[in-house]
Amino acid sequence: AFLLPPLSLIVLGVAGVLFLKNHPVLGKFLIISTFIFFYILSIPIFAERALQALEVPTRSNSEINKAQAIVILGSGTYIEAPEYGGHTVDQYGLERVRYGAYLHRHTGKPILVTGGDLLGIGSSEAEQMKSVLENEFHVPVEWSENNSRDTRENADNSFSVLRKSKITHIALVTHAWHMPRAIREFERAGFKVTPASTAYVTQRNKNLFSFIPSADAFSKSKLFVHEVIGILWYWLTPAPDKP
């Protein structure tokens, strides 16, 4: 929470204010830096290009068809959704299961969903994705992995499930900007991975509005910073390679 914006920028600005009295040069530098970072992270031209720099190019259905199974990563929960009468997938999860259903219809490959109950609400992300896929998209789910808490555990737990069926080549479904971290972990776990990226950032034509701050752009920048932190953390805390 302290590393991600906006809290990290608020902390930076408060630090600048506290330094003003005894270290005015440093204080002013921190305050000005805070405003500059807020502006940069809030403009579409930066946010969209930053996420695009992480995105893994899409693959054709023929390439994805070579995989033995489709693995869909969980992303979060829409808690106590009043219109659905309970917990269900969030916006990002819905984007992923939609593409997973699309791939299943075009390839016929079986699906594994993976994601645990991170919030302790008695409903795992995998259970929510399975429900949406089967009841709304009318697509069967072959395996459901309900215990993982992050991308690394998604990979390790999915490998434990699928190796029992001698499946090692998967089409991995997640957001295009999350794919670099996901590929690294799933390959380390022992899979051959064909990326099945979804929800690409399609950039508008550059105009005046590309430089005007917006909440949507700031949200995209937060995703970018989150992924960069995640990639760095996995580099700093490498898991043991699978035999």
Provide a short characterization of the protein structure.
This protein is α/β, with parallel strands linked by helices and 243 residues long.
Structural overview:
It is a single chain. It is built from nine helices and seven strands. The protein has 243 residues and is α/β, with parallel strands linked by helices. Helix 1 runs antiparallel to helix 2 (24-42) and helix 3 (44-54) packs parallel to helix 9. It is elongated and about 65 Å long. Strand 2 and strand 3 form a beta hairpin. The model has no long low-confidence stretch (mean pLDDT 95).
Tell me roughly what share of residues is in helical segments. Answer: 40-55%
User: Rg to the nearest angstrom?
Assistant: 20 Å
Structural class: alpha/beta
Instruction: Give the distance, in angstroms, between the N- and C-terminal Cα atoms.
Output: 35 Å
Largest sheet: 5 strands, parallel
Strand order, sheet with most strands: 5-4-1-6-7
Low-confidence stretches: none
Mean pLDDT over all positions: 95
Characterize the quaternary organization of these chains: single chain
Strand content: 5-15%
User: Tally of extended strands?
Assistant: 7
H/E element order? HHHHEEEHEHEHEHEH
Silhouette: elongated
Count of runs of 4 or more consecutive helical residues: 9
